[in-house]
Design a protein that fits this description.
The structure is a single chain. The chain has 14 helices and 13 strands. The chain has about 425 residues and is an alpha/beta fold. Strands 3-2-1-4-5-6-7 form a seven-stranded parallel β-sheet, sandwiched between helices. Strands 10-9-8-11-12-13 form a six-stranded parallel β-sheet, with helices on both faces. Helix 1 packs across helix 14 and helix 3 packs parallel to helix 5. The mean pLDDT is about 90.
């Protein structure tokens, strides 16, 4: 092990990126490095409980009442939820553009605070898992690492579908129209934010991009079996971890009231934000209650607003990594963590995408045959049970998934990420592939 280094993680204020960074940070902490998380004030204490140092910041002025972890985005998603029932094309002006604007506003607000933190803790390397730039990071002059814990279409290529669309690989008919409308929706704000980055000492953003790539190390995670065929390879500082599964989740066992019932065991999770759509969660409960299977439901922040059926158990939050190995199938929103973790443990998926890259993950899993994508707000009463039965009965798919799982678990992505980050912290040189 190299001498202990100081590693700062700065994940987006949502559970997916934070959990991904926790999995990598835990490996570094066990190796003797000082690991600090820069987190929103609403998350205060949650990382200390896991053994990490914290530095707190805000992305907006403090509210008059205390916040729950990630409350800003919970509120934003709840207010925007009606838009999710529209097509990804229609979401551009009503969801994508306001979301980017909110992200940019947050980056502007927090930049001075980030400079203070970096000056205080003097990190050897900064690791960020965000979708928009925070100019204090590249302006610091310190080695830094970018993690992309979103679908890799975010790393744009003209020969691949545009991100955030859920458009298929084998039909280009709508690609150009979406790209043109996306540019119309975001070009002005993107140019303004790029100017802010330069004002704060960072490089300008490339055309159409919301975040810089690192000269030292860039990581993304998407199993090779579902990754996109990329005509133009990413640069030498890019590495695909394939999956990155934390080992810090609490143990979990099937509760007796479910263990004593018959039927396959199915995990239902629409993520910390998607599960806040109470009408959607009630619809899922109603449809799944009439099936012969058993369900473990991640109920989410609105857990008190609806009841589960007799063939279900659930909690506001569940230790997902401990639940997944024990189930037979996953019903998911298609968040990148849940998608890659389900493949890591060899589980077929039914995907009900809601926003952002969830549409892309749902389409990619569907078109590669590792699950089925259903229309989230318009599936028929028989569609979901029929998809469950098809996937559970597919012996060939079970064999494919077992092979994927065995391969991914033999080379843990969080350990590889930690080694690469340690290399950058120790040498201050780029960690090039090969």
């Amino acid at each position: 092990m190299a001498d202990g280094k100081t590693v700062v993680f700065f994940p987006e204020g949502a559970f997916g990126p934070t959990n991904n960074c926790v999995g990598i940070g835990e490996v570094l902490r066990r190796s003797g490095h000082r690991v600090i998380f820069v987190i929103e004030e609403s998350f205060a204490g949650t990382l200390e409980e896991k053994g990490f140092e914290e530095r707190l910041m805000r992305l907006a002025p403090a509210p008059e009442v205390p916040e729950e972890p990630g409350q800003f985005w919970k509120d934003f998603i709840r207010e925007t939820a009606p838009v999710f029932r529209k097509s990804t094309f229609d979401q551009l002006g009503e969801f994508m553009a306001p979301t980017w604007e909110a992200l940019f506003d947050g980056a502007r607000y927090v930049d001075e605070r980030l400079v203070e933190i970096f000056d205080e803790v003097q990190p050897d390397v900064i690791v960020e898992d965000n979708v928009c730039a925070f100019p204090a990071i590249p302006a610091s002059g310190r080695p830094w690492v970018r993690i992309v814990s979103c679908n890799p279409l975010e790393l744009k290529d003209p020969e691949l579908p545009p991100p955030y669309t859920g458009l298929p690989m084998d039909d280009r008919s709508e690609w150009d129209a979406y790209r043109e409308e996306y540019r119309r929706a975001i070009d002005e704000m993107q140019a303004s934010f790029s100017e802010f980055c330069v004002e704060r000492g960072a490089p300008p953003l490339a055309a159409g991009e919301m975040i810089h790539s690192s000269d030292w190390l860039n990581l993304y995670l998407y199993p090779g079996e579902v990754d996109y065929p990329r005509p133009e390879p990413l640069g030498p500082a890019w590495h695909n971890l394939e999956s990155s599964v934390r080992t810090t989740d609490a143990e979990w066992t099937v509760p007796p009231e479910l263990a004593e019932r018959d039927g396959s065991l199915i995990y239902v999770s629409l993520g910390s934000l998607g599960s806040g759509d109470v009408p959607l969660m009630k619809r899922l409960v109603e449809v799944l209650a009439d099936t012969p299977h058993r369900y473990v439901v991640s109920k989410g922040p609105q857990h008190a607003e609806y009841e589960l059926a007799a063939n279900m158990v659930g909690e506001e939050f569940l230790p997902q990594v401990s639940v997944l190995p024990q189930v037979d199938l996953v019903i998911t929103h298609g968040g990148n963590n849940t998608t890659t973790e389900s493949l890591h443990f060899g589980k077929p998926m039914i995907l009900l995408p809601i926003f952002w890259d969830q549409h892309d993950n749902a389409q990619r899993i569907h078109e590669t045959g590792f699950g089925e994508r259903l229309p989230t707000y318009s599936f028929g009463d028989d569609d979901l049970p029929a998809a469950i039965n098809r996937l559970l009965a597919d012996i060939e798919l079970a064999g494919r998934l077992a092979g994927v799982s065995q391969r991914l678990q033999s080379a843990p992505g969080n350990e590889r990420a930690a080694l690469l980050i340690e290399r950058v912290a120790t040498t201050a040189e780029p960690a090039v592939s090969g």
